[in-house]
Design goal:
four-stranded antiparallel beta sheet; alpha+beta; 9 helices; about 425 residues; single chain; 8 strands; two-stranded parallel ribbon
Length: about 425
């Protein structure tokens, strides 16, 4: 299989005309989602399980249709008439003969058992389809988290590169001052320490960037991550609702996990009814017909017969009653599980809404922090250049500015992830 990232120029995003072939490929969030849904094995597994569940519907509905079988028999008794002497209550005589015939059986009624089994199969098929939706939503959540994580790593890498460039400039300026006896050797050493710290930050940021790309590549079905890729900044999403109540109602209606649990509950109720109906009679029609080309004089050349069979289970050692009780208990457990799932869904929405609101507030707070850190850095740099302060004060201002810059980038993409999580908990991430 070709590498996913090697064909991004063709399947992800149209590259503007005039760019050279060696330009860095561009990946959008929409393209990443599409690739993940097409290539990830979890989607294939969920879809196949849904197809398997639909085949079970056909299996259970087969009981409503006639059963027709064709058979052929040839018997040779070794030129002697013999009898079966063991293994049966009757000692049937065996004669040389051949015969070709057909047997037909048709269920007239089993008082709803087959119908309930069919309803249970339909409910389980709906549960499998809901599970496929849940798998899809989970994968999209992971793709979004990996995508925004990669964007955050890229932003931190840019901050680290800018910090390294600034500290190298500071080192060169401090070194020049020291040569002119305007700064001490201690200032030069501290400036060199700042450069080394910036190099470590760049190395850490590059490692985090490669890890983020590897995570994203795995979700997109590629075993190896490229070292160069450009991620396009997605447009801003919708804002947060003022209250959480509409979101909880949305989750109770559209959350795939709840749809699956409701279908499982319906299937358990139908199976309980089917187990109850198993104790009722079964009425069926049977017919058989055929010809015997060669036979003993004891047989006619043609035969045909039909009848009605009524099967009434009277005693089976408590088997049917135990099965009914088991199915009813399973139905009660499924109903309780549905209630628990609904409670968990409401809790998840409330927590996701609170986390998203907190993450949104952090954007403004970190923006203010970054502005103050930039102003403090400018003042500290001016004081250092004028010889009014030591390099320690400048290093502290640079460290505060770098931390604020990273915090602001982290806050922006952290909110995007939390907003996607809120969409996931409400069942609208499709």
């Amino acid at each position: 299989m070709k590498s996913v990232f090697s064909i991004l120029l063709l399947v992800c995003l149209a590259v503007p005309t005039g760019l050279r072939s060696e330009e860095t490929p561009v990946l959008t969030l929409a393209a990443a989602r599409e690739l993940a849904l097409k290539t990830h094995p979890r989607i294939t597994v969920a879809q196949l399980r849904a197809l398997v569940a639909r085949e079970v519907i056909t299996e259970t509905r087969a009981g409503f249709f006639p059963f027709l079988a064709v058979n052929a028999t040839a018997v040779d008794s070794g030129e002697q008439i013999t009898r079966i002497a063991s293994g049966t209550l009757s000692n049937s005589q065996i004669y040389d003969h051949t015969g070709i015939g057909a047997t037909l059986s048709l269920l007239v009624t089993d008082f709803g058992r087959t119908a309930n089994l069919s309803d249970a199969a339909k409910s389980r098929a709906r549960a499998a389809e809901a599970d496929a939706l849940a798998t899809r939503a989970q994968l999209l959540l992971e793709v979004d988290a990996a995508y925004f994580g990669a964007l955050k790593a890229d932003a931190v890498k840019a901050v680290a590169a800018k910090t390294l460039e600034a500290r190298r400039a500071l080192f060169e300026r401090t070194n020049a001052f020291a040569k002119n006896q305007l700064k001490s050797e201690l200032d030069v050493r501290f400036a060199q320490v700042g450069v080394d710290e910036a190099r470590l930050l760049v190395e850490e940021a590059e490692k985090d960037w490669q890890v983020a790309l590897a995570t994203l590549a795995n979700l997109l079905g590629d075993k190896t991550a490229p070292r160069t890729i450009q991620l396009e900044e997605p447009p801003a999403g919708a804002g947060l609702p003022a209250t959480v109540e509409p979101l909880t109602e949305l989750a109770l209606q559209h959350r795939p996990e709840l749809l699956r649990q409701r279908s499982e509950n319906d299937a358990a109720q139908a199976l309980a009814r089917a187990a109850r109906d198993a104790r009722l009679p079964t009425v069926s029609i049977m017919a058989a017909a055929g010809v015997m080309p060669t036979s003993d004089p004891h047989f006619d050349h043609n035969y045909a017969a039909g009848g009605v069979n009524v099967n009434l289970p009277l005693f089976a050692g408590g088997l049917y009653r135990a099965r009914q009780r088991e199915a009813e208990l399973q139905a009660s457990a499924a109903d309780a599980a549905l209630q628990d799932q609904q409670n968990n869904a409401v809790r998840d929405v409330r927590l996701a809404w609170l986390e998203a609101g907190h993450a949104y507030e952090r954007i403004a707070l970190t923006a203010s922090l970054l502005g103050n850190a930039n102003a403090a850095l400018a003042l500290a740099r001016a004081r250092f250049d004028q010889g009014l302060s030591s390099i320690i004060e400048l290093n502290q201002a640079e460290l505060a500015q770098t931390s604020a810059d990273i915090a602001h980038a982290t806050a922006e993409y952290g909110y995007r992830v939390r907003r996607t999580m809120l969409d996931y908990t409400t069942g609208t991430l499709r």
